[in-house]
Amino acid sequence: MAIAPVNKFISVMVPVAPGEQELYEVPTGTSALLLYAQVANVGVGTTYPTVTFIQRRETRSTGNTRDVRVIKDVEIPPNDALILIDGRMVLEKTPLVVDRLLITGNQTGITTITDVLYDEPTGIVTVSTMGVHGFEAGSQITLAGIAFTCDSSAGITTNIFPDPQKSYTVDTIVDAVGTSKTFTTFVGGSKGYKHVYNPTIHRYVRSRDESITVTGAGTKFTPTDGSYDPATGIATFHICDHGMMTVDGSYTPTGAAYNADTGVLTLTLSGHAFSDGSLVSFVDDALTFTCSMDGNSNKKTYPRKDIDPMSGKWMKTTYIDSNNFSVNIGASPKQYFDVSAADYDPTSGIATLTIGRHNFSAGITSIRLSPKSLQFSCTHGSGGIGSYPRPSGYGGASANDPSYNLPVAIAATTTTSISVDILKAVSPTNTSPHTFVPNTGLTPIAGDTAYNASTGVLTLGFEYDHGMETGDAIKIDDNGLTFSCGYCGAVGINSQKTYPRANDPASGNWLPVTVTGTKKFTVNVGGAGAASGETHYFESAVANCVTRSVVIGGGGYTHTAVPGDFVTNGMKKSTNTVTVTNESQIFTCSMDNNKSEHAYPRSTDRIAGIATPIVESDDSNISIFVGITSAGGFVGPLQMEFMASILENSNA
Question: Global pTM?
């Protein structure tokens, strides 16, 4: 039986990077003694950085913290060191409190990062900075507060880099020393996971009382939640039932056109009053359209209450000309689903399909069934297994099945299932019991199966007819396909890799197919990146690794407006603005790993002290444009190194 040591000595040695950084947290089940701690000035030349050293105690039940500044803004001369602790500091982790050590360094040469391109598998990053960085090849640097999104085995996650802190060496710079704003450095590989740079991620903390004022009315509000998107510059504040929106006018458009692929709705009204930035809202069911999904045979009204993104919202308009303006109400992309279970009533023609979580609504939305994708066995005629819906001439059908390539109305839903009338009210000719037979999946074979590493086009070939049509979709099991290539000089068994990997774009996603033959089709799985110049050879496939779609929702169908059925005065206009009190909205951000609070708007920010237009609103939220930022981290020359000795005592 192993016994954990009662006492353990550890050392903490890290560079001091720009901003506040956490050095140490007492582990669970221990108390600790900080025996010695120092910061050394290791900068090149004559530099006088300063440090602040903090013990932070957090009350675990509330999350409230108390900081004890051991030293504050103490200067470290060149080629010297500052002793922070030379004795004992007791640190605890109990059911009530937890102690941490933090340090904040202030130094010269700090530059804001505006972009980071990470190359996997080489592990090299290309860093762009807001100002001239001043580095040359061989310079030692520290990086801090860079947010990456990565698609890992744990799903899509956001991580703050570097963690733990370390120093790096500049490999190359773009342009000359003194003018360069771009450099490269090696940070290490990440097991094939692609990393995407994010501008600074902000986290809402709180708002000061009555910090948002409606222009004109003077009504004041206190947000209870908020968010900021640095890529769009939009800040959103949650103010429950604010009621601040006022209607400037009510109108009836004389025409409308909706692009389902882009989500743009263009409204026609002669001499309209809408300009860039005006807000428009529609009463529910104000606009009537027909849709090519059902051959324009049925009229449908929009926005549908609590379903469509535009329902109950005010959204920003774009001026086109004196008779037309537009608003983006959201696109209608295709959604694909497999069926894991099905129950078919042959008398009524109603099939209840288990498809997993969905957003379909009974009596409002329709779906399509992928041709020949839904399998049942029955005793009718000679019996056997049939695939539905069938085109004329397939599987004994003398005409197209009622639901073949046509919309099917949803009669009922649960969280994970839909009930649809696949006979579309046509009298049944086969009322024998039907038993659902799950699709077993498709198995690609050698011959036609090939991958173009440059274009990303994957051709899949099969021994038997696949039964699919262009517009259907497939999903490939992770590691279902094996290819070999000579990337990095790999040969033999070492050249073989399985795909899609968990971090590949195709992993877990539906891929629309283009049928190129009865036994083959193509999908785009994305190029091979650094290996795009290598020929990939198909080796093998896991049996039944390709799943085909059965249910298809949404899609870029053509919508035709019916202006005669538009609700009179169902379109509303507003131009509300608000003023946000300076330094009233408190956020933390990823540039210091959310260690410190910052108050906005600052006196230098674009919205400080001015009436700012609302760009989107619903009953409990307003959004305003506060400005875009690409900033997302800091870089500076290596100037300080921290070193500490700690004795940990087990409480177990």
Answer: 0.78
